[in-house]
Design brief:
Length: 432
Amino acid sequence: MTTLDAPHTRTPQRVPFPTVDEISRHCLQHEEPETVHIEVHLTGHLDEARLNTAFTEALHRHPRILMREAPRPWYARRYEWELTDAPDVPPVTFPAPTPDALKEARTRALAEAPPLTASPPIRLEAVPDPDSPTGATVLFLTINHTALDGPACLRILATAAELYGGRDNAPPPTPAPPSATAPAPDLPSTWSRPARVAHGRPEPSPGNGLLVCELPVPRRPKGAPYTVNDQLMVATARTLADWNEEHGTAPSRRRPLRITMPVDDRPRDATMPIGNGTRLVEVPFTPADLHLPTPELLHLTSTRTTALKSLPRPQLGHGAALLTSPYAPVSWRAAATRALRTAAAPWTSTTLLSNIGRIPYPLDFGDGGRASAVWFSAPARMPRGLTFTTASTAGRLHLALRWSRTLLGHGDGAHLRDLFEHHLHATQEEPR
């Protein structure tokens, strides 16, 4: 065979892991996989062939998601993503309709991360809703968080909905974020160790537990300087303060709470960069803050969150950029990063509150129906061990509590939900 007769082979394009991906890759654990779970309840039935076609085409419309971890020699200085022309594995599966189908799909979303070595590192399951008389469908999108985050994959699902139903799923215009920057006032020292979530009744099996519920979106006075996100932040802080006090932490011995808050400045249209695009800020609360009257605490929280969101900051802080500098083989740096993460565990924030906000897309699948509820859950590895994730659809707040089973049990999750609901209600404008 001459050179001209040889089949043409294209070398796949490779992209070095960004900082967030690399830190996550260094610290993977089999017992508590780094997955993001998205659960979308639709009002109609989806056709398997049409959904397969639409979702596969959506992946091609956002080609940055078609990637896998590239093989590397031991001396390689970086992990790299290898972009692919097509999925390596079927991206959509259709579990059998059983009475426990939803519970089993949630369990898989927490326990079985899509492998990084197969493109794409996400999995979509279309599960018939056993409680629906019309055969409605629940979509479970499981994401390997080393590669992607929830908002990016929701963008891909919106593209799939548009391709399936033939209806526009573009988000409405959003106001530009304020450009002014201001120093965050009265922030407690970041050198002090934050409070940890007190242990409840852990379960014997490793991994994560999950509880999802639906609440009213909290009301607030017209023109209030604080946002629903600030109300959620106050409710989270007071929930954890009550929980810790109930479990033996006296008010006089409380440490400050620090709540990690993801901030996402990406556009929501088809140009949205796909990957891990959020940056993390930490909102502090001292024990004295939590004794303030609710209106004062809401105003204080609003001042802090506004200032923190406006400050320019790398996604994981300045230290992460140093850790991912390719000064040595990546396998050596992985060991150093894991050791530093263990040493820094006492300074890790108390919990994470990820508020997706109002779902920006209709998620309209045409005759397959629209989204009536959307839940997200973020990983809950120790030392935090507990995350709160919220989103709103059709005037309802969808809350997911996710915890490490080495910290809490299912009954603990239910009690935390009740505390959160009580404190969120307390942030509302009183009816007149």
